[in-house]
Amino acid sequence: MATAIPTPISQKITLYPAEDRFFGPRPAVLVLPGGGFRELPPHEGEGYARWLSGLGIHAFVLSYRLLPDRFPAPLEDARAGLDHIRNGDHGLDVGRVGVIGSSAGGQLAGLLMTGQVLCIEEGVADPPRPDFAILAYALADLDLLPPPVVENLLGDLLPIKDELSPAKHVDASVCPTFVWATAQDPPGLPNALEWTRALAAAGVPVELHVYPGGSHGIGLADGVEYGGEPHKFIAREPHTASWTTACAAWLRREGVLAD
Fold first, then answer.
1. Residue 99's beta-bridge partner residues?
2. 22: three-class secondary structure by DSSP
3. What DSSP character marks residue 4?
4. Is the pLDDT of residue 91 over 50?
5. Long-range CB contacts (within 8 A, 24+) of 255-259
6. How many angstroms separate the CA atoms of 174 and 169, rounded?
């Protein structure tokens, strides 16, 4: 039987360097789009990356493994992505390294933040963790999703549902976090509130924004399409789109960006 050759992580990453007007060491962010582990919407990948680049942040968009590959495959890719940013041969001068994750990508971001190692993994010790995190309507706890959705997502991994619920593993070692969602997002809002509760209870610096308009998966909320194809979640909500301004201010407050 032939053995599949693993794809180098560098081939799964699309790099968007900080704009040329920025000099010296720059922060970097691993971008983890959502999509329910079935797709990787470009507006949560390239869209975020272009915004970050304009702030002076190197953005690394990761095409992590999707279904039928299940955990730990996407988590392995996310860890390798963080390692690549810190140690990879990408030729950039990188400072602090963060992560941004939307929806399912936010679940991955959360598992990175907490340093979670799954019982189905072997030989994993001291996994890489980000220095700061941005969570967009990110999955915090699988108990907040309808059971049929969880069963379809996890398959035979259902017994480790709690291990895959990152908010259950938050402690004081987790990085500062910016959380946002909209009030019209049934999965996003309760998960954003749970993220905030867990982080605050552990004494982790956290900032939460809830906007009145916009559905799940809205991304930048600027209505701009990426990747050449329209996506059902792309919409323009000007007030919700101000989350990027709030997040940039938070990045400055946390010292990730200079004033």
1. 30, 133
2. coil
3. P
4. yes
5. 256/27, 256/57, 256/96, 256/98, 256/131, 256/132, 257/27, 257/55, 257/56, 257/57
6. 9
- 3-state DSSP call for residue 58? strand
- Residue from 153, 128, 164 nearest 30 by CA: 128
Q: Where are the beta strands (DSSP E) in the chain?
A: 13-16, 26-32, 58-62, 94-102, 132-136, 177-182, 206-211
Q: What is the pLDDT of residues 134-144, one digit of tens each?
A: 999 999 999 99
Phi, psi angles (nearest 5°) of residue 165: -105, 95
Q: What is the pLDDT of residues 186-220, one digit of tens each?
A: 999 999 999 999 999 999 999 999 999 999 999 99
**Pairing status of strand 58-62 against strand 13-16:** antiparallel
Mean pLDDT computed over every residue of the chain: 95
Query: Measured between alpha carbons, how far is 198 from 125 in angstroms, rounded to an integer?
Result: 24
Output the pLDDT for position 231. Answer: 78
Dump the DSSP string for 99-151. Answer: EEEETHHHHHHHHHHHT---TT--S--S----SEEEEES----GGGS-HHHHH
Residue 6 DSSP code: P
Q: List the beta bridge partners of residue 62.
A: 13
Task: State whether residue 218 is helix, strand or coil.
Answer: coil
Sign of the CA dihedral with 220 first, then 17, 104, and 163 last: negative
| Identity at 128, one-letter amino acid code | P
Predicted model pTM: 0.96
Instruction: Take residue 127 and report the two structure tokens written for it.
Output: 């996994």
d(CA 173, CA 15): 28
pLDDT bracket for residue 1 (50, 70, 90): very low
